[in-house]
Each structure stands twice: as structure tokens, then as C-alpha cells.
């Protein structure tokens, strides 16, 4: 259990315009950002209890300081193959509807303060599954940061997202 | 809102409930001065407070009611209309109070109607106060009807009444005080009133007397505390916010968990230093837990408070005489539980009064006392509370229920005949059909009882019926005392641990092949011989899909947890049993709540999260809630969960045009309906019906079939998105699970083929044939502009499924090619025809779907990137993981038609080039 790292050296601070803080996470080489106000904590997910018959996105339940947390695999949520090889199960703690969720990711990176002028909406040809959970993209030096919509990431299982034509 | 006002609202609400109850008692026992004084004082308190808080409307109402009650006290005969009027007034007061609570102010409005009526009633000529001693005994027991002879306009009498009211009030204000203080008020009125009392007590059955005694005991100290806040110290109580208690409970739960954790650590370390303080902590925690639980306990009587009123209103409405006897009102249970059972209890009492008790004449001719009795009884039994609701009415007409069950297609005639009476009685809990998800009931009784059962099961309770024709019906409800902390048995299955609530565990049996207790199989369904009876066995590992598909068959070794839900007994086969533990039940995550086999989860002493198995859910799996573990049923019961690999299909069997049985997979059916045939409209020569605010075309199952012009017409409704059609059928016969072996026919487009269903040849209907008959454009992808229909290859070994899914996929806008196995699929994929998408069954004999996808990925080029949607018969996590690893775009359950369409649409709507 470690506190979120508050290193803001990500980008040269843009003096103009509003900025938003993002907790960055990694899946393979792909970089994602979660709005910092939605992130409760970052922890290592251990002792996962499998839930038989559960949706594939749910990796299991775990006990975080006396609370039962539903561990959700971001890779499966985005339709990516499971991670090969082992490593620590890093999780980002989220709260939704009074329930605690842990979003399992490969790695948790630094916190970035990003100005609006690097923001762009989703490219039109982005995979629908990704488009459904992404709020847009930030252009960083040499790489892209995909902003995740926490609500959308957690909205599954109730109903299969209807296929929208576009 | 003002604190004072809030206090007033809570208090008045309580008072009014008491007054409701007392009034009904008073009506039956009009000479009981104690009850009258009680009512009088409560209404007076409300009136006084209203005046103090400046609520004129409430004050006027309470005042008028009080005036009339004052008359009763002065000897006016108590009549049913008068009591009804007062009850009506109380209802109005409640409405105003509710409004007051919502808005914080008294709503505008006039109550002249009620006040006028009350005043007129109190105007009635009253026997002079003096002769009361003579008049009262004469009136005891019987009700003298008082008819209003002249209707006066409110305005006409208001002045007169006002004067009278003033006079009365002046008397009252002085009167109640000394009365309340002195245990024996003026001897004159009391004695004659008290004399008939013992007579009545003797006449009444022992039980009602007991119930009555319990009531005043509870309600009496209350008014005393309110009206005379004198120096005498009473039982000290304070009002505590429910949220505070809830929070306290949560904290105690955490404490229990922490203690369990410490105990677990102490078990492992042999360090004596901890032992003593830990023991102490454990004791204190247990006591604290008990204490906090106690604060949440409420007598069940508070859930019953409204019932006398309900029964009274119903009996006057239905013209029946009904006695409500309540025993064990002081039995306490958790307020959370109480909240949940409140409404079901009211509903059941209502049902008993309405359907159970016969009319007076019927009862007389049956040789029963004219007055019917509904008996409520509550008592503790082990860790549960038992509530019985018994009536001495006509009992359930089991033969009628049998008929109805067959009519509605819940069970076949043969099944119904085999069932025991207890099983048949349980049909009243069905919401029409047992497969309620896909099919809902047509209408009628049983819907309410279904809700009752669901509510009770929600809190881990069970409900049972005993009924005897002509003698009455008894419902027995067993519910746990509390929901928050329960004792549970920790068991293991494979490498998982689960908790099973101790309440539903009867015994544990160790089973081992070759011993006396060995699991045997009937057609693959495991059973256990236990004391000369056969017990159906549910292996947990198979039920939860814990075994990999290729794992060796289970060894039938381990422990059988014998459980009982209602009257249904079954055994849960687990690998190991650890210990029992007090667990704190935590609700299931909303993402997992749809799994019926778990009721929640908990954190064990060692910190691990375990799932709590819901015996109700298991029981439903064993026998859809109706079976009772009878040996005859076992074969049918376990089929569903044991032979999942054999692809049993749930079929809806119906008749339509001719005597031949027809069937359609239930998964395609949206709903079953019964409509009034006279509602069918004809537009342009086509039958239509207004259905859920839309016009729905009707198509007869057979062109030769005549559509009914009146009476009930059965429909099978199919929907796709916004469009629906109704297939007109003659009769819905049954819903069956069958492993299908379809013989295809090619010459008829309305049939896929024929198959043997329950030993009868049955035609399997091709729904794709009917859809275009209903909507000309059905089957064409009009709702999506697709330049060129993407082509799709459907790979499935079962011809039936290929036939079934092809029209569905075509309707979704795909050109569909079929392949029966992996070889054929590869040939097709490597051939000339363009393929954009593959839908593939994962479980096929020979080369499985996995092999096919692997081969595709190895082949490289287009095939390596081609999107694949996998159809899985069982959603085993391992196979899903394997499919994901192979880059399968989506896994869909084989019967999930809409899921499949959504999945293929999703892929098709993504730019195909981007995917490649």
C-alpha cells in the first residue's frame, strides 16, 4: 500500500489555461490518465478471491483495510489480452455508487498536471470499446495519454453497451 | 425543519398508530373505560401540541374527534359508523402530517366535511349522563346502529356546535387530569363498566385475552410519560437517530472482524502473553455486539400495529366477521428485518381475510362459527424467528391450483399429478411461469404472493404452507433474527473457500466411495442415500464451474452439507469443512449481484474475502423452488446443472393449427401473453393488437388456423429492438429442457425440422419464417446504412444452432456463411469468398473452436487479424481467458441472442480496415 506519488515533473507547466491533475497508469506501453479527484488510493492487490460465474472483467474480491473491494481488470475491460509474465498487481482504488473498486493495471506512473491546450478529442477511428471509456487524448512529448472516464470504465455488466454506428 | 416540529411529527405518528389500534379494540369492547381514556388522552395530546405549534387545521380536526370521543365517555353508545368516522378523521390527520413533514407547513384546505360529520354525530341525542350504568351493560357486545336522520349543512349548525364544543372542551380540560392521576376515578361510571369485563374475558378465547393483555402493557406507560412529566422517574429513554445506530453497528462489525483476525493470529503463534487480554477483548466484543444488536431490536408488534385496522376495514368492506388474534407481539427482531417483512405480512393477512375466510353464511352452512379467525403468532426458535399466519377459512383448493398450473403452462398434467399437496400449494408463489425471467405471468393471483416470497427469501427466510380444504391455511415464515452478523460454516471446494449460513445447515455427512455413505448416480445426477431416503446432491465445484473442462470427473469424495430450504432438502457436496465462524455479512458488489448463488461476502479472520453461498439460490437450481427432494424428481432436477455440456435447450412447446406439437427455443421468446381476442384489430386485412402502447402485428402459427373472435387468445411475443410480433397459438403446452436432435426438413420454410420432445414428435418452428410476415422490412438492415453487408462465417457443429442463429445474424445485417466444423471453416476462410468476421462455437467435437482460432492466427495475413466472436456454452473463466489470449473480440454465451447481435454489430461498426 503506497500513497499516490505526487511528482509533477511530467510536463513543463503551461502557465496559461486551466490544468488538471491525472494519475497515470500503464498497460504494456499504453499510457492512461485518471482524474486525480476520482482516485482514492493506489495499492497492491493481493489475495484475490475468485468469484465464480462473474463477468470476465472482474478478477475477484479483496480485502483492503476491512473493506471488500471489487477488483476490475482494465486490460480485460479494454479487450486487451491478459498480461504475460508476473509482476505485482497494481490497483487504483476508485469509488462508485458507495462501492469500492480496484482497477488492476500493469503499473502506476506519476501524477501529471496537464493543461487544456494539449487536449484533443478521441480520434474517430478509435476502437469502439476504447472510445466508450475514453474522454480524449493529451499529446505529451513523444507519447499520448488517453484520459479514462471513470464512470464509463465502471459501467459494464448491467447492460451490454449498444453498438453505435459512426 | 424545526426540531420541535420534527419531534411532534414522530410523536404524533406513534400516537396515531396506537389510537388506530385502540379504537378497533374499543369498538369491540365499548365498555372498556381504560381503552377509551387512553385514546382520549392521546388525541388530546395531539390537539394540545397542535395548538401550541400553531397548526389550526390539525387542531380543529383533533378537537372535533375528541368531542365525539368525549360523548362516548359520557355514555353515548359506540357505533360502527362513529368509529369509522373517527378513523377517517385520523387518516386525514395522517395525510396532513405527511404533508407537514414534506413541506414543513400545514397544507391549505378545509376539513369542514369531516368536522361537520363529527359534530353532527356528537349532536345525536345522547342518553342522559346519569343513566349510563343502566345503558352501558345493555349495549355491551352488540352494536347499536346509529343512523343519521337529517343532513345538516355545515354552516347551519356551526354556531350551535361551536358553543357546544366550547362547553365540552371546558369540561374535558379539567376532566382528564384528575382521571389520569387517580387510579380509580369517579366510582359511578367505572363500576358498571368494569362489571361486564370479566364476563367478556371468559367468553373470549384464552388467546385473544392474552394478546390484549400484551397490548396495553406496551402502550400504557407511553401516554403517562407524555401527559404527566412529573417528578416521578420513569424508564429513561432517549430518541436516537437510526443512522447513528447503523453506524454503531458497522463499527461493531469491524470490531468483530478485527477480533476474529487477532484470534486467528493467536491460534498460529504460541505466545501466551496475548492470550489473556485477547480473551478479555473477545468477551467485551461479544457483549458489545449483543448490546448493539439489542438497540436494533424491535418487537414484531410494531409491524403488526396496522393490522387490526386493516382487518377491520376489510371485514366491513367484505361483509365478513373476522377476529384478528395476535400472539407473541413482544417477540423482538432486527429492525432491518422488520422493515422487509412488514409489507409481506400485511399482504398475507389481507389475503387471508379476502380469500381465506368465507362469508358468514358459508361458514354457518359449513358448521363453523360465523366469525372467522386470523391468528398471528410469533416466537423465537433457535437463531430464527417463526411467524405463523393461520386462518380457519376454506383452505386452498388444490385441485383448482393443479388445473391452473396446467393451464398456465407452469407444469404438465403428468407432473402435477405426481406432486404432493405441499408442492402444489407452493404454486401460489409462482408469478405465473417458473422461468420468470424470459416469460412473465399473464395476470391474476399469485403475483402478490410471489413478491411476498421474494421479499422473505431476500432476507434469508423461508415460507411454507399447510392447508386443509375447509379447515384453513397456515403460512409459516422462518426468518433469521438479524442480517448483519450470522454464524456460518466455512467450507472448501477445490482451492476456494465459501461460507454457508448455519441456519440452513441440518447436518454434515462425510462421503467416500466404497463406504456406507457414497454418492450414487442416476443418469449422471448425484444422489445420496440418507436414512432410507434419497437426497439430491449438488456438487459445488460443478455448480460454480470451478473445474476446468478437461479436468477428470469429480471423485465424489468429501462432505455433504445437508440443507433445507422450506421443505426442500438437498445436499451440497464440498471438498472440506473447516469450522463455524461468526461472519459479518457484506452486500455483494452491484456488478456481481446477478449471480443467484451468492447472497453476499465476508472477511474471515485471516483477512481473506469469501463468498457466502445462498441456499435459496442453490435450492432454486435444484428444483426451481417446487421440488421437495422426492426421489421421483431427482432425475429431472439435476439435469440442468450436471449436463451442461450436453446442450440441453429450453423449449416452449405449444399447439397452433392442428394437433401437432410445435416448439421454439425459449431463449428467442420475449414474453408469453394472453390477450382478450375481442381487442384484436384488423388493419388492411392484417390482425394487430395494441400492446404496451404500440401496435403489434399478429401472425397465426399456421395459415389454416382460425383466429378467435372472443375469449382469451394465447400469444408468443418475439421482439427485436423496438419491433415485436405476436405469434398466435392455440395453447401453450409446456416448457421443457431437452437435448435436441433435430431432423432437418428443407421443403417447409416455417419449420426447421422435427425432434422428439418428451417422447413426442414435435415440430421445431423457424421464427425467421414468421418475422417477415409481421414486418415486411424485418430481416433487412434498414436501421443501419451499411454500404456493403459485411460477411460473416458461422461455425457451429450443431445444425440446430446454425439454423437458429443464421436468421438472427441476417436480421442484424450480415451475409452469413455456415461451417459445421473447423476443417470446413478453414477451407471457407482460405477460399475465394470474402469474410469479415467469424462467429465460432468454442466447444465442438474434434477440433474445437480454440483450435480453429489458433489455426487462423497461425495462418497469418488477413486471418491472423480477423475478428472472432466466440460462443461459449458455459462461461468458464479459463476458457474465456484462453479465448482472450487468442485475441477473440468477444465471448458470448450461446443462448445470449442479443449479446451476440451487440457483439457482431460492435465489430462491424468499427472501421473494418482499422481492425485489420
Automatic annotation (TrEMBL), chain A:
Biological processes annotated in GO: chemotaxis; signal transduction
InterPro entries per the UniProt record, alphabetical: CheW, CheW-like_dom_sf, CheW-lke_dom
Superkingdom field: Bacteria
Gene3D superfamilies: CheA-289, Domain 4, SH3 Domains
Pfam families documented for this protein: CheW
SUPFAM superfamilies reported in the protein's UniProt record: CheW-like
GO cellular component: cytosol
Domain CheW-like per the UniProt entry, residue ranges: 19-159
Entry protein name: Chemotaxis protein CheW
Source organism (scientific name): Methylobacterium aquaticum
Gene: cheW
Amino acid at each position: 500500500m503506497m500513497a499516490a506519488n505526487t511528482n509533477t515533473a511530467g510536463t513543463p507547466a503551461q502557465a496559461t489555461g486551466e490544468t488538471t491533475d491525472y494519475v497515470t497508469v500503464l498497460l504494456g506501453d499504453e499510457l492512461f490518465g485518471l482524474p486525480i479527484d476520482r482516485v482514492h488510493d493506489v495499492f497492491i492487490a493481493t489475495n484475490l478471491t475468485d468469484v465464480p460465474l462473474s463477468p470476465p472483467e472482474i478478477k475477484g474480491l479483496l480485502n483492503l483495510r476491512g473493506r471488500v473491494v471489487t477488483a476490475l481488470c482494465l486490460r480485460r475491460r479494454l479487450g486487451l489480452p491478459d498480461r504475460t509474465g508476473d509482476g505485482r498487481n497494481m490497483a487504483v482504488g476508485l469509488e462508485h455508487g458507495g462501492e469500492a473498486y480496484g482497477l488492476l493495471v500493469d503499473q502506476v506512473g506519476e501524477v501529471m498536471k496537464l493543461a487544456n491546450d494539449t487536449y484533443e478529442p478521441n480520434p474517430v477511428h478509435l476502437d469502439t470499446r476504447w472510445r466508450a471509456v475514453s474522454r480524449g487524448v493529451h499529446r505529451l512529448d513523444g507519447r499520448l495519454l488517453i484520459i479514462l472516464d471513470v464512470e464509463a470504465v465502471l459501467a459494464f455488466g448491467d447492460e451490454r453497451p449498444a453498438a453505435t454506428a459512426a | 425543519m424545526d426540531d420541535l416540529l420534527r419531534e411532534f411529527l414522530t410523536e404524533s405518528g406513534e400516537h396515531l398508530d396506537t389510537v388506530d389500534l385502540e379504537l378497533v379494540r374499543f369498538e369491540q369492547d365499548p365498555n372498556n373505560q381504560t381503552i377509551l381514556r387512553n385514546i382520549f388522552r392521546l388525541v388530546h395530546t395531539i390537539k394540545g401540541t397542535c395548538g401550541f405549534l400553531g397548526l389550526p387545521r390539525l387542531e380543529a380536526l383533533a378537537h372535533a374527534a375528541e368531542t365525539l370521543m368525549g360523548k362516548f365517555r359520557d355514555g353515548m353508545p359506540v357505533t360502527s359508523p362513529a368509529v369509522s368516522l373517527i378513523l377517517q378523521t385520523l387518516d386525514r390527520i395522517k395525510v396532513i402530517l405527511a404533508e407537514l413533514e414534506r413541506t414543513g407547513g400545514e397544507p391549505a384546505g378545509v376539513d369542514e366535511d369531516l368536522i361537520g360529520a363529527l359534530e353532527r354525530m356528537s349532536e345525536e341525542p345522547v342518553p342522559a349522563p346519569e343513566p349510563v350504568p343502566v345503558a352501558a351493560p345493555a349495549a355491551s357486545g352488540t352494536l347499536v346502529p346509529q343512523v343519521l336522520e337529517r343532513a345538516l349543512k355545515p354552516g347551519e349548525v356551526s354556531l350551535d356546535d361551536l358553543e357546544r364544543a366550547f362547553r365540552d372542551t371546558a369540561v374535558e380540560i379539567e376532566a382528564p387530569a384528575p382521571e389520569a392521576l387517580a387510579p380509580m376515578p369517579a366510582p359511578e361510571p367505572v363500576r358498571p363498566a368494569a362489571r361486564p369485563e370479566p364476563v367478556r374475558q371468559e367468553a373470549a378465547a384464552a388467546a385473544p385475552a392474552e394478546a390484549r393483555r400484551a397490548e396495553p402493557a406496551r402502550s400504557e406507560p407511553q401516554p403517562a410519560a407524555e401527559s404527566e412529566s412529573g417528578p416521578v422517574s420513569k424508564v429513561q429513554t432517549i430518541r436516537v437517530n437510526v443512522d447513528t445506530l447503523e453506524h454503531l453497528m458497522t463499527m461493531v462489525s469491524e470490531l468483530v472482524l478485527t477480533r476474529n483476525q487477532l484470534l486467528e493470529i493467536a491460534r498460529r503463534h504460541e505466545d501466551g502473553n496475548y492470550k489473556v487480554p485477547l480473551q478479555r477483548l473477545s468477551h467485551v466484543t461479544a457483549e458489545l455486539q449483543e448490546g448493539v444488536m439489542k438497540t436494533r431490536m424491535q418487537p414484531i408488534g410494531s409491524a403488526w400495529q396496522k393490522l387490526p385496522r386493516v382487518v377491520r376495514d376489510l371485514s366491513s368492506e367484505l361483509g365478513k366477521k373476522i377476529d384478528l388474534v395476535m400472539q407473541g407481539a413482544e417477540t423482538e427482531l432486527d429492525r432491518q428485518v422488520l422493515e422487509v417483512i412488514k409489507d409481506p405480512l400485511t399482504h398475507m393477512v389481507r389475503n387471508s381475510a379476502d380469500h381465506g375466510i368465507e362469508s358468514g353464511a358459508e361458514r354457518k352452512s359449513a358448521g363453523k362459527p360465523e366469525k372467522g379467525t386470523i391468528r398471528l403468532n410469533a416466537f423465537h426458535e433457535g437463531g430464527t424467528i417463526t411467524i405463523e399466519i393461520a386462518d380457519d377459512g376454506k383452505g386452498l383448493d388444490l385441485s383448482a391450483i393443479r388445473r391452473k398450473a396446467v393451464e398456465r403452462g407452469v407444469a404438465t398434467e403428468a407432473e402435477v399429478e405426481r406432486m404432493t399437496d405441499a408442492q402444489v400449494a407452493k404454486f401460489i408463489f409462482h408469478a405465473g411461469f417458473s422461468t420468470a425471467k424470459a416469460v412473465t405471468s399473464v395476470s391474476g393471483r399469485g403475483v402478490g404472493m410471489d413478491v411476498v416470497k421474494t421479499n422473505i427469501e431476500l432476507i434469508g427466510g423461508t415460507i411454507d404452507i399447510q392447508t386443509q380444504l375447509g379447515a384453513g391455511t397456515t403460512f409459516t415464515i422462518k426468518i433469521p433474527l438479524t442480517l448483519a452478523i450470522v454464524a456460518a460454516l466455512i467450507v472448501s471446494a477445490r482451492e476456494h473457500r465459501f461460507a454457508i449460513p448455519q441456519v440452513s445447515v441440518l447436518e454434515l455427512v462425510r462421503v467416500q466411495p466404497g463406504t456406507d455413505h457414497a454418492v450414487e448416480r442416476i443418469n449422471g445426477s448425484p444422489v445420496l442415500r440418507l436414512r432410507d431416503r434419497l437426497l439430491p446432491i449438488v456438487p459445488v465445484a460443478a455448480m460454480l464451474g470451478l473445474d476446468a473442462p478437461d479436468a477428470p470427473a469429480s471423485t465424489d469424495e468429501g462432505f455433504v452439507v445437508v440443507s433445507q430450504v422450506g421443505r426442500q432438502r438437498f445436499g451440497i457436496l464440498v471438498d472440506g469443512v473447516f469450522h463455524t465462524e461468526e461472519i459479518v455479512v457484506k452486500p455483494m458488489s452491484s456488478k456481481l449481484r446477478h449471480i443467484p448463488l451468492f447472497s453476499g461476502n465476508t472477511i474471515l479472520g485471516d483477512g481473506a474475502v469469501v463468498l457466502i453461498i445462498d441456499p435459496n439460490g442453490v435450492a432454486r437450481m435444484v428444483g426451481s423452488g417446487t421440488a421437495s427432494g422426492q426421489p421421483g424428481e431427482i432425475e429431472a432436477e439435476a439435469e440442468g446443472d450436471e449436463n451442461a455440456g450436453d446442450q440441453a435447450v429450453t423449449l416452449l412447446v405449444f399447439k397452433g393449427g392442428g394437433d401437432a406439437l410445435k416448439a421454439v427455443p425459449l431463449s428467442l421468446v420475449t414474453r408469453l401473453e394472453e390477450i382478450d381476442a375481442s381487442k384484436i384489430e384488423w388493419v388492411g386485412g392484417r390482425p394487430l393488437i395494441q400492446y404496451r402502447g404500440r401496435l403489434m402485428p399478429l401472425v397465426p402459427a399456421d395459415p389454416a388456423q382460425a383466429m378467435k373472435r372472443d375469449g382469451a387468445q394465447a400469444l408468443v411475443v418475439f421482439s427485436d429492438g423496438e419491433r415485436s410480433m405476436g405469434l398466435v397459438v392455440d395453447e401453450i403446452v409446456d416448457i421443457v429442457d431437452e437435448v435436441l436432435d433435430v431432423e432437418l426438413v428443407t421443403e417447409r420454410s416455417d419449420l426447421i425440422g422435427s425432434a422428439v420432445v418428451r417422447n413426442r414428435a414435435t415440430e421445431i418452428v423457424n421464427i425467421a419464417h414468421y418475422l417477415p410476415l409481421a414486418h415486411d422490412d424485418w430481416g433487412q438492415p434498414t436501421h443501419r446504412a451499411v454500404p456493403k453487408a459485411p460477411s460473416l462465417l458461422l461455425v457451429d457443429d450443431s445444425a440446430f444452432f446454425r439454423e437458429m442463429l443464421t436468421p438472427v445474424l441476417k436480421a442484424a445485417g450480415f451475409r452469413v456463411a455456415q461451417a459445421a466444423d473447423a476443417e470446413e471453416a478453414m477451407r471457407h476462410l482460405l477460399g475465394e469468398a470474402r469474410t469479415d468476421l467469424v462467429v465460432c462455437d468454442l466447444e465442438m467435437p474434434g477440433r474445437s473452436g480454440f483450435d480453429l482460432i489458433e489455426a487462423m492466427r497461425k495462418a497469418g495475413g488477413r486471418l491472423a487479424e480477423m475478428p472472432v466472436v466466440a460462443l461459449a456454452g458455459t462461461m468458464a473463466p479459463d476458457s474465456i481467458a484462453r479465448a482472450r489470449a487468442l485475441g477473440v473480440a468477444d465471448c458470448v454465451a450461446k443462448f445470449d441472442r442479443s449479446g451476440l447481435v451487440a457483439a457482431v454489430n460492435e465489430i462491424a461498426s468499427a472501421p473494418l480496415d482499422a481492425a485489420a
